[in-house]
Amino acid sequence: MHHTYFDAIPAVPELSTHRKLDAGRLREMRKRMDHATDKQKEAETIAYECLDDIAEISSDYIGNTVVQRLFEKCTEETKTSMLERIAPHLAAISVHKNGTWATQKIIDLAKTPAQIRLIRQYLQPYVPPLLLDQFGNYAVQCFLRLGDFEQAQFIFDAMVEKLMPIAQGRFGARSMRGILESDSMTNQQKLFVVASLCQHAVALSTNANSALLLTWLIESTEIEGRCKTMASRLIPHLSQLCIHKIASQVIYKLINQTTEPEAQQLIVQELLDNDQTLNDILSDQVRGLTFIQKVVVCPALLSPTRQAMSKKVCSALQTLHGPGHKKLLGLLLESSQED
User: Fold this and answer.
1) Which of 10, 25, 286, 299 has a 20 to 30 Å separation from 219 between CA atoms?
2) Is the pLDDT assigned to residue 50 strictly greater than 80?
3) pTM
4) Which of the four CATH numbers 1.10.260.40, 1.25.10.10, 1.10.245.10, 3.60.10.10 does domain 1-148 have?
5) At what angle do helices 247-255 and 288-296 cross, to 10 degrees?
């Protein structure tokens, strides 16, 4: 099932110049709530006074604190009435430096099916740009913490359908990792995203932000078969990836892990069996050569594999005559004599 997503989030609704609720009035309301004997009754009165402007004051410097208190103290019925006016602007308020505090509180305190439905309805089309935003990503993570896994499926759908744009963003990659590290999902939802990460491993491995997700997958999860699946995707492109600044680090991590020896063997075997791939990598004296130098001494490789690798590289280096090639050949010949 494919959803429609927006690439950008509209601006927050602004209070008119003839606003009733100026800073002084908002401060006075906050004070009334904080000092009231019957806090709920006072909050209900203030909610009624604010209702027409509730969406506008949610991103105000003082207004957002008033909105937070209203959602803490009002009845569920009043919270729903306020949310009906705020919800269409929820994404815009979530990416605002003041508004983010109001939306996080609103989502954290959502209790009734009607409230959760409203939040989901208006967050869903904006999940990709929200995850890419320094403030907006918290709104998405708050929704997950409500613990209704079925209602939260739209978040995982967005992460899979818009994987590349989200994963390549600074906040997108980190918020995705935060979500995947949390307990706020079913195992099925986690596997759904992990399968997509493996499927797009080649493109993800060449971007500094998205490569973080592959590193997390290799080093911080225990999902069976993840490294082997990723290695299978990357192997046809080894000659390009091993000379890439970021992708070569991902490949090395797969070689230097011992939880899935099969993944390591698949990559090493390709380097041993495919002369063209090895020559292409060694021909790059900047990154390719450094990568192979690291692989030859990789601590995770068994001694016979290291020796076979060293022998193969020595043989390939005989035909290459760059200064870096001569230096590496000298080092390998020296260490083979020591062995």
Assistant:
1) 286
2) yes
3) 0.92
4) 1.25.10.10
5) 10
